[in-house]
Amino acid sequence: MRERVVVLGPPGAGKGTQCKLLAAARGLLHLSTGDLLRAEVDAESSLGQQVKAVVARGDLVSDDLVLAIVRNRLAIHREGWLLDGFPRNSTQAAMLDDLLADLGQPLRVALQLQVPEEELVARLLGRGRCDDSEVVVRRRLQIYARETEPINAHYQARELLKCVDGLGSVEDVATRIGNSLDEREHGEETIC
After folding, report:
1. Does 117 map to a domain?
2. What residue spans carry the region label NMP (predicted)?
3. Were both Cys, which of 76, 86, 166, 191 would link to 115 (CB 3.0–4.6 Å)?
């Protein structure tokens, strides 16, 4: 079965790291929306020009524009894939559902990396980025909780949500993610 996975989790949960490992281990295409947006701008495509104009104004890239870029990549890559950074809200989750139905590529699972807030704060502050003060980090986590966590209910209602403990070494978390995907394939899963 082709693996089609959305990876969810708050800032600092390790989504990017785990997606890279999972993509390499299972031969999946890792689609990071941030990377996709930058690639479109660098390629100077028509979508990239739109993204560049939006960013230059200081605005957020619209759901429709992000979805168009995701659509372009999924339309040409019909094998397994991971989406990292999309969807970010309930509207995007519903739009993604429609897109995947149109493409005949049903989502297999939505993995939610779970990490306690204090650990997230410590991880994000430990990155050493100049704009990451504790106040800024906690605000980002509040925004995530308000805007992104409702996606969990969306995928739980569709019996696609799997929660994975994001604590421990990178390797331990990767093993838990792999086991979670294998359980789903063999019908032994436990949903959040």
Report:
1. yes
2. 32-61
3. 166
Please check if 58 is assigned to a binding site.
no
Q: What is the pLDDT of residues 68-87, one digit of tens each?
A: 989 989 998 878 999 998 99
Residue 10 is labelled as binding a ligand: no
Structural domain of 110: 4-185
Q: Which helix (H) or strand (E) holds 165?
A: strand 161-165
The model's pLDDT over 33-43, given as tens digits with 9 standing for 90+, comes to 888 888 888 99
- The answer to the question of whether 59 is labelled as a binding residue is yes
Roughly how many angstroms between the first and final C-alpha of the chain, as a whole number? 22
**Residue 92 assigned to a binding site:** yes
Which one, of 184, 173, 174, lies nearest residue 1 by Cα?
184
Q: Is 91 annotated as a binding residue?
A: no
Q: Is 13 annotated as a binding residue?
A: yes
Neighbouring C-alpha atoms within 13 Å toward the C-beta of 151:
29
**Is residue 168 part of an annotated ligand binding site?**
yes
Asked if residue 108 belongs to a known ligand binding site, the reply is no
